[in-house]
Amino acid sequence: MASPKLRVYGYSGCSTCKKAQAFLKKNGIEFEDLAIVETPPTLAELRAMLGHQGGELKKLFNTSGQLYRELKMSEKLPRLGETEALELLSQHGKLVKRPFALGAGLGLVGFQEAEWKKALGSKA
């Protein structure tokens, strides 16, 4: 049985997302491209990613985004509980750091080519 395809949430206007997609295509890595604004990651996916990020909630947030600033998340995030923060992310794709890539045994946020190459191993 084939392992589940890598799910990559991104935003069409995001240059970093485009770089990640180009990297995956260049290396022949099959992935499912999902629009993060229209279809944010589910609570289950966010919980899985949180595990891959060592439980650091802030790593899942797009801290340089407009919505993050508008909602004053830098003040609110330290006081939010894990469930509350993940629910917020699941409802507002623009709050989620992108690209957001989740697959069998791996979870990556943001795009750093060396990190992705290492995580994807022999596939990249």
Characteristics of this structure?
alpha+beta, Glutaredoxin, globular, 124 residues
Structure commentary:
The protein is α+β, with helices and mostly antiparallel strands and 124 residues long. The protein has a single domain (6-123), classed as Glutaredoxin (3-Layer(aba) Sandwich), CATH 3.40.30. 40% of the residues lie in helices and 15% in strands. The chain is built from six helices and four strands, in the order E-H-E-H-H-H-H-E-E-H. A four-stranded mixed sheet has the order 2-1-3-4, sandwiched between helices. Helix 1 (15-26) links the parallel strand 1 (6-10) and strand 2. The longest helix has 12 residues, at 15-26. The mean pLDDT is 93.
**Count of the separate structural domains:** 1
Task: Please name the CATH architecture.
Answer: 3-Layer(aba) Sandwich
Distance between the termini: 21 Å
Total helical segments: 6
Structural class: alpha+beta
Strand order of the largest sheet: 2-1-3-4
Q: Order of SSEs, N→C?
A: EHEHHHHEEH
Total E-strand runs: 4
Low-confidence runs: none
Biggest beta sheet attributes: 4 strands, mixed
Question: Which homologous superfamily in CATH is the superfamily?
Answer: Glutaredoxin
Please bin the fraction of helical residues.
Answer: 25-40%
Rg on CA atoms, Å:
14 Å
Give the oligomeric state of the chains in this entry, treating copies of one chain as homo and distinct chains as hetero.
single chain
What coarse outline follows from CA principal-axis ratios? globular
Topology record:
Elements: E1 6-10, H1 15-26, E2 31-35, H2 43-52, H3 66-70, H4 73-76, H5 82-91, E3 100-103, E4 106-109, H6 113-120
Parallel strand pairs: 1-2
Antiparallel strand pairs: 1-3, 3-4
